[in-house]
Amino acid sequence: MMHWNATALASVPDQKPLAGVKVLDFSELVPGPFMTQSLVEMGADVIKIERPPHGDNLRVMSPSLFDALNRGKRSMQLNLKDEHDREQVLRLLDGADVLVENYRPGVMQKLGLGAADMLARHPRLIYVSVSGYGSDGPWRQRSGHDMNYLASAGIVALSMTEANPAPFMGVPYADVGASVYALAALTTALFQRERTNRGQHLDVSMADCAAHWCNVRIPVLRNSDPDNARASISKIQKRPGYGVFRCSDDQAITIAALEMHFWQALVRTLDLDDFADGVFESYPYRAQHTDAINRAIGRAIARWSSAEAIARLEAADVPVSLVESPLMLHENAQFKARGLFVDTPRGPLARFPVRLAGM
Questions:
Q1: What is the DSSP string of 293-319?
Q2: Span 197-216, mean pLDDT?
Q3: Same structural domain for residues 206 and 244?
Q4: Which of 127, 130, 147, 226 could disulfide-pair with 102, CB 3.0 to 4.6 Å?
Q5: What is the CATH number of the domain that holds 140?
């Protein structure tokens, strides 16, 4: 087993943060591969173990997405049910620091590669399991995808409106969110291992991770209208001076004038005389008139092109942004200045967004 020495690595000025860390990646589709691709960018050596005959299902379902999530990894196809191939996996694990898998709980154990057995054999191994609902509980064997986990965690309920009772999440938030939690837990476990010389099993549930996000909404709901959940959620969804508004050139912009100074600047900039009275400087009072306020903002914004609206609102320091197309993000001046996008065989993609020494 490789002994990764954080102090020694830190002494090399151009050394990538996770150089020398070897990862065996058994994961498929989005959650695991999104995380392990970030590990590649941090310098880890990731070997992707794929099932025959065609490997990761994403190769067939969406080759372009497969390429995006697995760039920089080595890959080999092994049948984990075959004794010879399984022995090859065990030999690879002799030099590995991390194992990542996202099968349903119990699958790796049946294959002779479960967390308890692998940690008994390799005490310094960090074994990362990413699954829909985690390794225990009544839902542990339930099948699912991103929308199911978001629904189970309360996120879908927070996104539903009377006009749109079946919201579509444009990004697989549960998948990607769990990946980021797994990444944070893994890097913390590597740091912890330097102190304890012991590995551990990280049990990452996509539903758990999504439920954790609800901590920023649950206290508000509890203190709102406990007898009318729909009304309470509506208060979170609809805020005065906050939303998406259409300009004269049919481009959409977002405005988020929540705090007092932003609200006052918005009223001045848009000539919202009907709401200039001092009583509207109370947020709770404004919240009671959300619909009227946002309709007035919509009428005012519709007079201007998106460029003019953004220029006027930026000059007044009102929070405003154009609703950007994801296909054009690499041309965005802000992201260009930060060097966020890198060229790949599938076109420009965002790099890991936080810079670390050596990256």
A1: HHHHHHHHHTTS-HHHHHHHHHHTT--
A2: 96
A3: no
A4: 130
A5: 3.40.50.10540
- pLDDT tops 50 at residue 4: no
Predicted confidence (pLDDT) per residue in 266-319, tens digit: 999 999 999 999 999 999 999 999 999 999 999 999 999 999 999 999 999 999
pLDDT at site 161: 77
Domain-embedded: residue 49: yes
Are residues 33 and 56 in contact, defined by beta-carbon separation less than 8 angstroms?
Answer: yes
Q: How many domains does the chain have?
A: 2
* Domain of 289, in residue numbers: 238-323
Mean pLDDT, range 176-182, rounded to an integer: 97
Q: Within this chain, do residues 258 and 148 fall inside the same structural domain, yes or no?
A: no
Burial class (CB in 10 A: 0-12, 13-18, 19+), 11: exposed
Same domain, 202 and 134: yes
The H-or-E segment that residue 265 falls in is helix 260-270
**Contact criterion met (CB below 8 Å) for 177 and 117:** no
Neighbours of 215 (CB within 10 A): 8
Provide the token pair at 9.
């690595």
Position 91 confidence tier, pLDDT thresholds 50, 70, 90: very high
**CA distance readout (Å), 121 to 94, 187, 196:** 9, 21, 17
Residue 271's domain is classified under what CATH number? 3.30.1540.10
Using the predicted structure, report yes or no on whether residue 3 has a pLDDT greater than 50: no
- 258 shares a domain with 129: no
Same domain for 287 and 200, yes or no, is no
Nearest to 180 by CA among 35, 321, 316: 35
What pLDDT sits at residue 206? 96
Cis preceding linkage at 284, omega within 30: no
Catalytic residue list: 175
